[in-house]
């Protein structure tokens, strides 16, 4: 290794001093660290040799320059004996576990940095030249020779860049001029990792860093900050510019952009590195976003002479001031900044008025000023004002409850001619109708402004316009989908107000029907009617909003589904009690929710009674979801431990449910139902040990559902339903064994087909489907055999069981007329469902 040159300027040399040298320089009274006592025997001669100079050092206090010279002569004189490491270091291969001893400084450098000796020497020489040149440039700048310093800086970049902007060392690594010198050794490993990142040539490729570049840049810089803080002057200005350019890149992949800019700007300020005008603007904005609002605004005010007067930064400077002052509540200064922009010759974007409108609308005293500012922006933008601009203004007014102004903005957006609705007690017909207001509510709900939509509902009702049930049901559903506790409470409250409005309407209708003649005889002609009286009572009660929109069956369905999913069984029962009072007939959806709720509450008997009552007495037509719910209510699907007595009852109930399902008129409406219902039926009957019922069900569903067992379903049937639910070693073994059994059954079936004359070539889709049906029945026979039930007994019982399940004409006779009558899905729909 070539000898290093030392001078009195310690800033030009490496900060790394080996442990033996530290022991040589340590005072006698200091306690030796633990690592010094655990070194190998080679360190003993070193300690015996260094104790005497340490005592002399205490007495004479020699000159530091002399110590530096002695170290240079002793450790770096190029001799092979003294280039050896005084402390043993080892390098271990992680893959092989081999460990070797590092003999020399060169080997230690290669292991710690990943670079060979030649590359390290080249880098050290570059660092030395960079430090010397940078120091000379700083001296020239201090002496006032800025022109000469600028010329020297350009020449320095050109020379070093030409020499070192090439690939050296490993093939995947490219060393460029960007490097932080003066931090060698393993102690400063984070700085070396940052240097490796800076040397990559693919960062900011095409001026756009990738997500990985942004993440790694902050990772390496944040790790090296603590070490760089010991000597900020060693960080070149080019490195600061590069880091700022990467970390300040605006992208979705850089979510913590402002926080990183804030930290980096603080470090640059500590290092006395001047920020250019654009960087100062970003630093002020980052300071504001990080919570230092007053300090950021003060910094913005002080920069009016410098950044504010610069032609290139004039526009972004005042736009930043408008946004910060508006958010801080200083509307007066924000308006001054806006006026300065609008009067300038820089062609400002009129949309900068939007933050001012939002800030002015937050106070009732300045609401009129906010409206005037909106009119100014609309005039300036003209036809270029888009829907997003209108939505921003509408949201600004709705947030603070200024619904009238928000409605006027929406009217401006929808109509080209001027229609002024502000201050009117009744809205004009072009605006005050369900079609127009419904479009606005739909837009607000779709944009997620649910609170704003509710404010519009209240405002419209006060103006005499009652929102339609479809609009309010959409708002209730959106509140429920959010899952927020506050929104769920709002949805529940609004829905029950609609139900109460429905109950009041029914009661009033009954009362009017009974007292029609009395009202005609005894109430004066000019007296108030029931409708007028009800309206007067509503107008007198302004303390709380009372919804006048009447609930529909969709409102009840929304509440029922919500209560069922949240397992609020008592609330669901209360809802069904009110359903009859509201004179709204029960639907299949409402019945399904109540049945599911009873099943979840463990009251399967009540679920069955409810099903029988609604289908037989109340005339509710069940659908596919009803039967899926009923099969799930069986004890074999609810209880972890099966009870033989209950399993027998489940077998009987399952056959009855299947008969009702076959005879009922319904169709598949979703692919999910098409996939879940047949699977649930087969598993329910197999778990109840109803082997004949499972065979009949599969044969019947083949004709009326177009159902064919899949290979995955066959494996799950032979392995057990729990084998796919929990991934354990035992279940994995069961699935493997089940797959082998299915393969063996298929092999036997194909062997039998070849004996019967099949060519043995590839099978058609119809033949594959038939094969899966045969394998399914073989699985049933195998499981029944374990229960000591012979296959002949099952075959003999098929006729009787198929009659019990309402599928005799379908399974035994194969009557095409009966199959067409009970078909639940047309052929094309079956093919579409199976392809999903």
UniProtKB/TrEMBL annotation:
PANTHER family documented for this protein: PENTATRICOPEPTIDE REPEAT-CONTAINING PROTEIN 4, MITOCHONDRIAL-RELATED, RESPIRATORY COMPLEX I CHAPERONE (CIA84), PUTATIVE (AFU_ORTHOLOGUE AFUA_2G06020)-RELATED
Protein name: Pentatricopeptide repeat-containing protein
Lineage of producing organism: Eukaryota, Fungi, Dikarya, Ascomycota, Pezizomycotina
Residue spans crossing the bilayer: none
A GO CC term assigned to this protein in UniProt: mitochondrion
Annotated GO biological process: mitochondrial gene expression
Molecular function terms, GO-annotated: mRNA binding
Organism: Apiosordaria backusii
Record field: compositional bias (Low complexity): 36-45
Pfam families xref list: PPR_2
Top-level taxon: Eukaryota
Residue ranges with Basic and acidic residues bias: 53-63
């Amino acid at each position: 290794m070539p000898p290093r040159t030392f001078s009195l300027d310690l800033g030009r040399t490496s900060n790394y001093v080996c442990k033996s040298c530290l022991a040589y320089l340590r005072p006698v009274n200091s306690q030796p660290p633990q690592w010094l006592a655990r070194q190998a025997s080679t360190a003993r001669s070193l300690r015996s040799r260094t104790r005497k100079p340490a005592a002399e050092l205490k007495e004479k206090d020699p000159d530091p320059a002399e110590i530096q010279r002695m170290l240079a002569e002793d450790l770096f004189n190029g001799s092979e004996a003294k280039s050896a490491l005084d402390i043993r270091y080892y390098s271990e291969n992680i893959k092989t576990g081999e460990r070797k001893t590092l003999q020399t400084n060169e080997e230690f450098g290669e292991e710690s940095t990943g670079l060979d000796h030649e590359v390290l020497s080249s880098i050290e020489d570059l660092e030395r030249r960079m430090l010397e040149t940078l120091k000379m440039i700083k001296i020239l700048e201090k002496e006032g020779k800025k022109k000469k310093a600028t010329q020297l800086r350009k020449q320095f970049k050109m020379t070093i860049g030409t020499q070192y902007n090439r690939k050296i060392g490993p093939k995947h690594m490219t060393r460029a001029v960007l490097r932080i010198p003066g931090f060698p050794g393993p102690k400063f490993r984070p700085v070396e990792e940052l240097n490796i990142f800076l040397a990559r040539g693919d960062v900011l490729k095409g001026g756009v860093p990738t997500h990985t570049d942004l993440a790694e840049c902050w990772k390496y810089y944040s790790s090296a900050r603590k070490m760089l803080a010991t000597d900020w002057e060693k960080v070149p200005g080019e490195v600061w510019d590069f880091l700022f350019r990467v970390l300040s890149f605006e992208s979705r992949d850089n979510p913590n952009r402002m926080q990183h800019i804030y930290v980096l700007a603080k470090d640059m300020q500590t290092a006395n590195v001047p920020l250019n005008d654009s960087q100062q603007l970003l630093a002020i904005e980052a300071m504001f976003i990080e919570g230092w609002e007053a300090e950021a605004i003060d910094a913005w005010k002080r920069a009016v002479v410098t950044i504010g007067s610069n032609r290139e930064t004039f526009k972004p400077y005042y736009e930043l001031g408008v946004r910060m002052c508006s958010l801080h509540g200083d509307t007066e200064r924000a308006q001054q900044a806006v006026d300065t922009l609008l009067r300038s010759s820089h062609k400002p974007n009129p949309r900068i008025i939007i933050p001012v409108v939002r800030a002015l609308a937050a106070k009732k005293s300045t609401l009129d000023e906010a409206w005037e500012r909106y009119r100014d922006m609309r005039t300036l933008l003209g036809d270029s004002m888009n829907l997003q601009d209108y939505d921003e203004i509408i949201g600004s007014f709705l947030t603070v409850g200024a619904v009238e102004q928000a409605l006027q903005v929406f009217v401006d957006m929808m109509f080209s001619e001027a229609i002024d609705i502000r201050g009117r007690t009744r809205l004009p017909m072009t605006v005050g109708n369900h079609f127009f207001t419904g479009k606005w509510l739909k837009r607000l709900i779709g944009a997620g402004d649910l609170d704003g939509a509710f404010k519009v509902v209240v405002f419209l009702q006060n103006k005499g316009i009652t929102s339609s049930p479809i609009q309010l049901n959409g708002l209730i559903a959106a509140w429920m989908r959010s899952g927020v506790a506050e929104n769920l409470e709002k949805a529940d409250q609004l829905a029950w107000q609609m139900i109460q409005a429905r109950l009041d309407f029914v009661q009033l209708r009954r009362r009017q029907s009974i007292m029609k003649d009395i009202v005609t005889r005894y109430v004066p002609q000019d007296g108030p009617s029931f409708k007028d009286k009800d309206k007067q009572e509503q107008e007198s009660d302004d303390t709380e909003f009372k919804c006048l929109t009447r609930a529909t069956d969709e409102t009840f369905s929304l509440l029922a589904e919500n209560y069922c999913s949240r397992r609020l069984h008592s609330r669901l029962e209360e809802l069904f009690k009110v359903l009859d009072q509201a004179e709204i007939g029960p639907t299949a959806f409402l019945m399904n929710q109540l049945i599911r709720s009873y099943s979840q509450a463990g009251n399967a008997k009540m679920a069955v009674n409810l099903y029988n009552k609604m289908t037989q007495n109340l005339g509710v037509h069940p659908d596919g979801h009803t039967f899926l719910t009923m099969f799930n209510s069986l004890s074999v699907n609810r209880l972890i431990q099966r009870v033989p007595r209950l399993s027998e009852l489940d077998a009987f109930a399952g056959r009855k449910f299947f008969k009702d399902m076959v005879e009922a008129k319904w169709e598949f409406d979703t692919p999910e139902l098409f996939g879940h219902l047949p699977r649930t039926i087969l598993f329910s009957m197999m778990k109840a040990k109803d082997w004949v019922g499972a065979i009949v069900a599969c044969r019947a569903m083949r004709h009326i559902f177009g159902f064919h067992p899949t290979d995955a379903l066959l494996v799950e049937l032979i392995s057990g339903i729990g084998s796919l639910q929990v991934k354990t070693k035992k279940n994995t073994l069961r699935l493997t064994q089940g797959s082998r059994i299915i393969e063996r059954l298929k092999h036997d079936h194909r062997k039998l087909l070849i004996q019967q004359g099949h060519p043995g070539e590839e099978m058609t889709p119809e033949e594959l489907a038939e094969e899966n049906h045969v394998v399914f029945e073989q699985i049933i026979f195998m499981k029944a055999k374990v229960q000591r039930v012979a296959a002949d007994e099952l075959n003999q019982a098929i006729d009787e069981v198929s009659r019990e399940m309402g599928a005799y004409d379908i399974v035994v006779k194969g009557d095409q007329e009966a199959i067409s009558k009970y078909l639940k899905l047309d052929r094309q729909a079956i093919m579409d469902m199976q392809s999903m």
